[in-house]
Structure to design on (408 residues):
């Protein structure tokens, strides 16, 4: 019979054990017996080998530089060498920076790819120049938002990229989706980020955007420059918008161009497979929409002012809130769109910005100098020279309290 089996039987018997007697019986020392009786007493914890690196004391600094500024390894190496007396080799820095960036991107990719209703991404496709069949030029912007999981999209043609327009487009997107994701990722656009108060390490969201997000129920996340794949979904959509260039000189007016954009939006959601998921977005959206946050759009109406159009009178002016503003005489009889933003109003014809006026209730009549000259030339002053007209403006009109003439 094996000695260890007999010893186990003795231990389990529960009788008082004479360790020395057992040691003599089995031809071993009493410590061997004690070790079998009290194994926990003799357990030794293996000491983990601690690896150190010459970079250890710099890693917090390096991480901050990578996360906030996307500094390349060469830049970090130069900083450590010149300012912090780093004596290691460049290869160590390069390896650490490469692994750090890879880990961050992988973590974010997993996080944003797998969770339904978690995140959407917003961006603008800006300053696309198109012409209608009459050779009128349109400089357009397109609002873009993509749901991260399903790749379901909403796109909208806009005149500009003001904060009011951004809020309006987001509200329209919430209606289209049937809700909002828990996070919305933006780049550092000035309509979201307060650049005057922000630093690389501390991004401050402007107060109106922050309140808007709270009223909707989503969290604003800003995209840092070192994360090239984080905003990749909406950047892919921005590239797709280049398809619209094929319609240059192929549409009649703004309304027809808008219909083209809406048709493109439909095709992307219901007919074309996403290259990333190899699925039609609407199929995946049917599952993702259940995870969206419901949005009460009625409480959001104060965040934007709907566009209003005004007909230019024979005196080449529009009247907005009781105050008149001039436009060039070629717009007489046409409809001008007014966008009201803080202390400035913007006057558009189709998508072309004509003028921006500072609001000033002191003056009932607001003219651009070139406009006023042209208006005078086409009225009772048509027989006068330019010098006579200039003298008239200087000596007479500027002394009148109700008239303001802005010089370019």
């Amino acid at each position: 019979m094996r000695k260890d089996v007999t010893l186990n039987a003795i231990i389990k018997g529960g009788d008082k054990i004479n360790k020395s007697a057992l040691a003599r019986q089995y031809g071993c020392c009493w410590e061997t017996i004690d070790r079998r009786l009290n194994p926990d007493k003799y357990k030794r914890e293996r000491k983990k080998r601690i690896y150190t690196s010459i970079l250890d004391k710099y890693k917090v600094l390096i991480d901050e530089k990578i996360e906030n500024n996307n500094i390349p390894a060469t830049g970090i190496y130069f900083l450590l060498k010149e300012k912090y007396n780093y004596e290691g080799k460049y290869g160590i820095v390069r390896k650490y920076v490469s692994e750090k960036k890879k880990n961050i991107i992988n973590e974010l990719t997993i996080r944003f790819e797998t969770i339904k209703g978690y995140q959407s991404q917003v961006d603008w496709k800006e300053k696309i120049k198109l012409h209608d069949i009459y050779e009128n030029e349109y400089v357009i912007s397109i609002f873009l938002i993509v749901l991260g999981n399903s790749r379901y999209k909403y796109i909208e043609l806009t005149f500009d990229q003001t904060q009011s327009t951004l809020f309006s487009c987001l509200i329209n997107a919430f209606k289209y989706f049937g809700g909002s994701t828990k996070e919305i990722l933006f780049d550092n656009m000035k309509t979201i980020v307060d650049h005057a108060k922000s630093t690389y390490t501390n991004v401050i969201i402007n107060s109106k955007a922050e309140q808007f997000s709270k009223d909707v129920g989503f969290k604003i996340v800003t995209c840092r420059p070192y994360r090239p794949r984080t905003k990749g979904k909406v950047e892919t959509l921005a590239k797709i918008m280049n398809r619209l260039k094929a319609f240059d000189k192929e549409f009649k007016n703004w309304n027809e161009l808008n219909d083209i954009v809406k048709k493109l939006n439909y095709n992307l959601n219901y007919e074309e497979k996403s290259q990333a998921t190899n699925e039609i977005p609407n199929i995946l959206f049917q599952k993702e929409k259940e995870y969206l946050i419901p949005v009460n759009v009625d409480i959001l109406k104060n965040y934007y002012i709907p566009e209003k159009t005004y007909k230019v009178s024979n005196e080449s002016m529009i009247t907005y809130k009781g105050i008149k503003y001039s436009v060039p005489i070629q717009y007489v009889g046409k409809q001008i769109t007014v966008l009201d933003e803080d202390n400035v109003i913007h006057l558009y014809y189709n998508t072309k910005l004509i003028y921006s006026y500072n609001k000033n209730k002191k003056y009932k009549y607001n003219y651009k100098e070139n406009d006023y000259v042209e208006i005078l030339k086409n009225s009772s002053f048509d027989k006068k020279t330019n010098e006579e007209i200039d003298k008239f403006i200087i000596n007479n009109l500027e002394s009148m309290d109700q008239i303001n003439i802005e010089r370019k």
Summary: The chain has a mean pLDDT of 82. The first helix runs from residue 3 to 12. The CA atoms of residues 239 and 282 lie 20 Å apart. The longest strand covers residues 119-131.
